[in-house]
Amino acid sequence: MTSILTRTLRNLPLTYTWATKFPLRSLTTSQPLTTAAQTQSKKTLTKPNVKNIVVVDGVRIPFLLSGTTYKDLMPHDLARAALKGLLHRTNIPKDSVDYIVYGTVIQEVKTSNVAREAALGAGFSDKIPAHTVTMACISSNQAMTTGFGLIASGQYDVVVAGGVELMSDVPIRHSRKMRKLMLELNKAKTLGQRLSVASKFRLNFLAPELPAVAEFSTSETMGHSADRLAAAFSVSRAEQDEYALRSHSLAKQAQEQGLLTDVIAFKVPGKDTVTKDNGIRPSSLEQMAKLKPAFVKPYGTVTAANSSFLTDGASAMLIMSEEKALALGYKPKAYLRDFVYVSQDPKDQLLLGPTYATPKVLEKAGLTLKDIDVFEFHEAFSGQILANFKAMDSDWFAQNYMGRKSKIGAPPLEKFNTWGGSLSLGHPFGATGCRLVMAAANRLRKDGGQYGLVAACAAGGQVSYTSSIGVF
C-alpha cells in the first residue's frame, strides 16, 4: 500500500481573493437516477503477471444517526452484524476466508482489535488472522487496499474487509493527572504509601478528557477547515444548501426505489429490526437557510444541514483473486484495479485531496475523466465537494498548486453520487469506504457502465482513490 505525498506550494496560501477565479455551475435536486453511462473506452486494464482482484459482494447494516437505535451496543456488535450479513449474502464457507481486516477511528478500549472480536462473534474460525487499521475517514479504504495488497502479493486468495464506527458511545478518559495518580496508587504496597499518593489528589483531577474533535497538528476542527475552504473558493451558503438538498433528495429516491441493495436488515437485541438508513431527510432550501452557522460564527456558511452527521454503522466486503472467485462459482461485481493515497497540508488543504489524487489515479490506470462512468465521492461537507469541483476545474489551481499544465476537470453531476452520499446516507467514519465502493459497483452494473472512481478525504489532509471496472 503506497501513500503518495504531494508537495504544497506554501508561497501561495489560500485566501479569499480566489473568489473571482472559480465560477460554479448550478446544481439540481431532480437528477435522474437511471442516466445511462456513456463508456468511452473498453480497455480491460489487465496487467501482465498481476492477479485480477475482484469484489464478490459487500453489505452494510443501516447507517443510523448516533444516539438512536444502536446507542446501547458496542462497535464489535455492529461489525459482527455486518460480517454475518456478508456470510448470508455470499454463502462463503467460513473456512474459505484467509484473512479479515477492519477499519475504525474511535476505538473502544475493550476491543482494540475490533476485527478479531467481531470475526469470532460472527462465527469465523479462530484460526483466521484479523487486524484493525485506522486512517481517519478512509479507514475502510485502507482495509480494502490492505486486502488488495495481500491478494496481489500472493499471500492469500480470500479476504474480508470492512469498517465500523459507533459514535453513540466514545471513550472518555480521566484526566492525565488522575490517571497518573491511579497508576501510582495501584503500585503502592503499604497503607502509608497509599496515603502518601492519595494526599496528592486535587479536585480538578476529576475533570474528564473528551475525545479530540480538532486536528492534532493544527488544533482546528474539520468544520472550521471546511468553512475556510468554502470561503476561499467562493462557495456560497446557498450553493452548499442546494447541494445538500440534492444529496438527500437523491438518497430518498434511491431508498424508495430499492437501489440501496447493500443495506441488510439488522435485528437489534432488545429492539426492533432496522431495515434502512434513518438520516435521509429532504427538507427545503427555506428551512435550511434558517439554520445558524455551526463552526465559524456568526458569518460562516457551514451548518448542520450541509454537513455530514455523526453516524453509527458497519460494512463488510468479500474480496478475492478472480481465479479463486470463479473456482468457487461466484460472479463478482467489480474488479479493483488501481488505488492511490495522497497527502497535503493539513491546515489550508485539509479537504482538497480529491483534486490532487484524481489525476494521479487516472494516469496510473491509463484513463481520462471522460472514461469514468460512475463517481462516488465521500461528502464530508457540501462546501468540501463544491470547492474540490472548482479546484479540479481550474487551470490556475493546477498550474500554481499542482505543478500541472492544465486542469483535470470536474466530474459531471449526472454521473456523480446519484444515489445520495454521506450528507444524507450518513458517515460512520470507519465504514464509509466500503459503502462507496459498493455504491460504485452497483451503479456500474445497473447502468451498464465500465469504469468507476471512488474517493474519500480524511483528517490529516489525506485521501484515498480507487478506480474499478464493473464489466463481467
UniProtKB/TrEMBL annotation:
Pfam families membership: Thiolase_C (PF02803), Thiolase_N (PF00108)
Main location: endoplasmic reticulum
Keywords: Acetylation, Acyltransferase, Endoplasmic reticulum, Fatty acid metabolism, Lipid metabolism, Membrane, Mitochondrion, Mitochondrion inner membrane, Mitochondrion outer membrane, Transferase, Transit peptide
Example of a GO MF term: acetyl-CoA C-myristoyltransferase activity
Protein name: Trifunctional enzyme subunit beta, mitochondrial
The keyword Mitochondrion is annotated on this UniProt entry: yes
PANTHER family the record matches: ACETYL-COA C-ACYLTRANSFERASE (PTHR18919), TRIFUNCTIONAL ENZYME SUBUNIT BETA, MITOCHONDRIAL (PTHR18919:SF153)
Entry superkingdom: Eukaryota
Positions of the Thiolase C-terminal domain: 330-463
Species for this entry: Sarcophilus harrisii (Tasmanian devil)
